[in-house]
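#structure-requests
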Amino acid sequence: QARRKIDPDAPAPKAKLMASYYEKLTTLFWVSQNHLFHAYAWFKYYALCKEYNRGMSEETKRMLASAVLLAALCIPSIPQESGASGEKQHGISSTAEDDIVKQKMARMATLLGFHTRNPTREALLAEIRSKDLLDQVPEYLRNLFFLMEENSDPLFMVEHAEPLLEQLKKELGNTTTSDENNDDVEDTTLGRYVKPLTSVLLLKLIVNLSKTYHTVSMDFLKSLTSGLGMTFEQVEKSLVLFTQTKTLSVRIDHRAGCLRFGDTQLESDVMRSQLTVLSKQLESVARILQPKDQTAIAVSNSASYASIRAALPDEHKRIIERKTNIEQRKEREERMAQEKVRQQERQKAEEEAQRRKEEEIRIKKEHLAREQEKQRKIQQEMENKEKIGILKSMGKKAEEISEEQLAAMKTEALEKEAQAESNRKREEAERKTKEAAKKLDYLVRAIRIEELPLIKKKYEEKVKSDRERYELETVEKVKKAKEQWEFDVKAKNVMEDHGVFKFMEEFEKMVMAGREVGHKELCKEAEAKAEVEAEKAKIRRARKRKDDEAKKAAEEARRAKEEEEREKQEALERAKEEARREKEAEEQANREAEQRRMDEEDERRRASESRGPPRGGGAGPARGKYVPPSQRGAPGGGGGSRFGDRDGPSRFGGGGDQYPGGGRYQGGGGGGSRFDDRGGGRDDRGYGGRDRDGGGRDDRGPPSSGNSRWRN
């Protein structure tokens, strides 16, 4: 059921599985002595077997039906009294505890699938009757059922039940004894129900006696229960249990030798209604003795009925009007109540909104105030902790200082004071350490001076005492050795007369002969074993040498391979180095050839310049000086263009083209250089300078002719 609650679409378990489940429940509840659920489990098991096991034999059906009936009869029956008198008789009523027990029983029955929320003995017996299960049980079990359920005669109940129980024991085997601890769980026969049936039969006997008698003697009770096979002590114990479970009210009076039924504490309640009951009974007796005139009663009743029928329409109309007025008044009151409720709800909503608004404002203010106070306290606490730490470092007791004093202190002043105190303590400690070291030095020196003669004296005394003790011990040892020697000599002389060693020579020879034979055999076995071990060791050494040689050969091959690879790598690196050197030499030769060519061009350019003045001739302004455009065409060499298309001096020479000496990167620089021993140009950045083709200070030169930006 729990699985189907989780998953409603899950298929129902098979009938065979459920039958096995209820069969195990019968054993479980029998062990727990829950006879009610034990009987219900048997009933469910019987119903499943009968419905789904079509091939079940009649004997099996009879056994199962008998088990169901006996299990139901074993349920203790609680007598139900009618009205409130029964409750007063036992002094109990419906309580919350009873309701809780009923709820637990109902929940357990639902979980176990018993299809009832009120599992009782009466309900189960009614089911048994409705299923015609009594027709399938033996005759003596039917008689037992009718005896226990329909017979209320306490005088013959046990007498009639005794042969039936004996027949049950004889036919199905007596698996129970009078020992109450002999409950064998593994016993599946019906004989185990004899003892519970006896207990239920005793309960019914006592209940019927309590209904019939107020007082019963113990001898009479013993005679009635003698057929149950129980001692009177067991009967007394059962009575106590029945009383504890409030099944019945009985008191055992051993002084008077009787049983008293009923509760003395509630006898006044019974007497309270005794006169009323007597009045009702006397009235019924009077009606029987003197019956009333039925004709007069009929005439009186006819007149009453006629007056009632005459007043019926007016009464009906009045009732309808009253009902209408009541309904109208109810509607009016309901409308007024609804209006009042709506008005109260509106007012309540407005008040709630106003209250929420005020509450939000108050909460915000309180939150802000709490945050500010929290920050202030945190800041104050941090400062106080810092101050306390400073005070503790100064050696002061911070616990004796109050919070107000801490707040009044300044952290900077405390830090300065702590620093000064720390410096003072450090200086004081250093001074004390020096003084203590000096004092200790003096003390140790004085102690050593004073103890030196004492140590020498003590040493001499110890040497003297050791020498004396040694001499005494030596003399005593020699004396004891001499005495022991004399005693040994005497003992030897005495033992020689009684010696047995001269008789042992022949025995020793005989024993040693046997031992020599055994020793030779052991030697032979040891030699054979040693030869085998030597042969095995020789084989192991040979295998080891072979393995070592193989490992050595593999190692040499690996080393040779590594050496060969290393030589190849070195040869490759040497070849790369040779190629790099050749390439550098070739580049150097190209640079030198290019330098020579440029030097020759410089010589030719100088020679051509020395033969005639440049364009724009004349003295002109100084070389390299700025000439305004208006004066560049004047006599004397001004007015030259930067790009050589005008007359006059150029920026990089005496006039004419910007690169008159073989190009921008060839160092010939128009009109000389500020360094007279090099190509023209006034700076060193390549216009006839030091680091380009004009033969400057740097000897790097142009790159190789293979891939160069200076290639012609």
